[in-house]
Amino acid sequence: MPAGIRLCDLSELAEGPLGFDPFNEGQDSVLVILRDGNVYAYTDVCPHYGNTTLPWKKNAYLNNRGNRIVCAAHGALFTIENGLCVSGPCKGESLTPVPVIIENNTVWLVTSRAGENEL
């Protein structure tokens, strides 16, 4: 088992992006998206203002076309592949990437570096 927190099976992401509360804080703090065989993960916070979460309801992270991550509060649009804001009040800023790894078709949130104690 990797040094991290299990988020989901890779197959669960086939239906669309998912939000997770890996640290049991009471709300999702990480979003994970599978796109063209690649997994992308970001903190579930819009860079425009404080701690505003992105979706208007659970797992509603994409715009109507399904090609951009959207902040429901501000209307900002972010590219899936690198989290860059391409439209909205935080244009040019980016979502904060979260390190994940895929092992045995399971998505893990990386929480320590090699050589450190595991959880």
UniProtKB/TrEMBL annotation:
The keyword Metal-binding applies. Pfam families: Rieske. GO terms for molecular function: 2 iron, 2 sulfur cluster binding; metal ion binding. CDD domains: Rieske (cd03467). It comes from the Bacteria. The keyword tRNA processing does not apply. Keywords: 2Fe-2S, Iron, Iron-sulfur, Metal-binding. Residues 5-109 form the Rieske domain. PANTHER family: PTHR40261, RIESKE DOMAIN-CONTAINING PROTEIN. This is Rieske domain-containing protein. It comes from Alteromonas lipolytica.
